[in-house]
Amino acid sequence: MNCPYQAQDSMSLWWLADVQVPKRVGTLSLQDLRRKVALTYDHAWIASAQGFALSEDLPLQTGLMLPAERDTAVGAVDDARPDQWGERVIRLLERPARLSLLEYLYFAGDDRFGALGVSLHPDTYVAAPTAAMPTFDGLADMHQAVQRVMAGEAVSEQQRRLLQPGVSMGGARPKSLMHIDGASWVVKFSEGGELDSPLIEHASMQLARRCGIHTADTLALPLPQGHALAVKRFDREGVRRLHVLSSHVALRAAGEAMGYPELAQLIRRLGHPDQVRAQQQELFRRMVFNMLIDNTDDHEKNHALVRGADGFYALSPAFDVLPAAQGLGYQQMRVGASGHESSIANALSQARAFGLTDAQAQQTVAEIVSQVAEWKVVFQGLNVRDSDIDLLAQYLDGAHLREQGASLNR
Fold it and tell me: How far is CA 213 from each of CA 36, 234, 318, 378, rounded to the nearest angstrom?
């Protein structure tokens, strides 16, 4: 029987890329009235050939490193915390006597996103206890457990084992983990409402591929009503864990604004020299695609950089891509000279930040416009309901986005 958790103000941080040999990175500690989580690197991590700066604002040096803002963890450690849904699961299921950010980091467990781990023990990696990951056979039970959490109802011990709190870097949508064909997938469920959002997201990802965008693998999983969406984890390579930075953490660490052009320039510094131009152009495609399908929830935690074995970073596959169905006319991240405005003119205004000439940028936009124009065919082919297509058409075929496509011919 597990001993009850006892609140403590420091824990150890571990590097788990080598599954067989966890390596201690340093000490996490609560600071500033327990409103911040700081990191102190171990001397051994600094001196090790394997040691590296977890993010640009966590240079390999001794001393306590604090985040600038309250209610956050320092640097890349912030990406090891659970998302909003994970916090909700922890509050309902774990119910620790104290719930500081350090507790959330601990209870995210061993299957958290990325390659970092948190342990109560100073000298050994012992993660918060979680059950074995379910397989596809457990989908219906997992869905029922998720629904109970959404309703704030008690969850049985059997259902509890189906919920994993640390599965993504951002978002409030209900989700857990599942093994499919030996690989780990994030399974996302609908929050309710009139749209079958998981199936729409699957269709949007397929449309993105037609636009030349590298997307995460997805599967639409039928439920008695609607679907769940399985997204293959890109922070795993077989049993190996990969270090991932959200663009939120990466841009913040670099002291840059949260924008697409800024992220494109950050790729120039962090990416492999032979891949920078292609990566920047990929990001430009994603930005334009998000605009044209009314994905206005393209915030900086919905873009990520994955660290390769060579120490260089590359864009993760695209994820969390679907129409917001709001027609707001702006993007979460800055697009160009006119700020967050969702317009082709704005996207083209800083094309050179993406390594593109004006002619290349216009050609790329034209390609995406022609593919997005076929969105109904793609969605119908994947059995998106007619009622959902009709609702989405108000926005994807609405005056604003139609005008964007027409603007290329002016």
Answer: 37, 15, 7, 15
Q: Which of 106, 90, 101, 117 is nearest to 16 (CA)?
A: 117
Query: Which residues share a beta bridge with 315?
Result: 305
SS3 state of residue 3: coil
* pTM score: 0.94
Q: Tens of pLDDT along 327-357?
A: 889 999 999 999 999 999 999 999 999 999 9
357-397: pLDDT as tens digits: 999 999 999 999 999 999 999 999 999 999 999 999 999 99
What is the spatial distance between Cα 246 and Cα 244, in angstroms, rounded to a whole number? 7
Domains and CATH numbers, the chain: 10-119 (no CATH), 242-409 (1.10.1070.20)
Taking the chain, what is the end-to-end CA distance rounded to the nearest angstrom?
A: 71
| Cα distances (angstroms) measured from residue 314 to each of 26, 275, 300, 357 | 26, 8, 15, 22
Question: Which residue, chain included where needed, has tokens 């990416």?
Answer: 271
